[in-house]
Amino acid sequence: GFGLKRVDAIVKRLGGYVSRNSEDGAFTTEILLPQ
């Protein structure tokens, strides 16, 4: 799979947004990229 640092680098390069959250034992990552 993709590592978190790699995902961060790709999103930064593309001018996007990353949000991470952990609640009730679930880890989520939300990624928004411009079209």
From TrEMBL:
<protein>
    <submittedName>
        <fullName>GHKL domain-containing protein</fullName>
    </submittedName>
</protein>
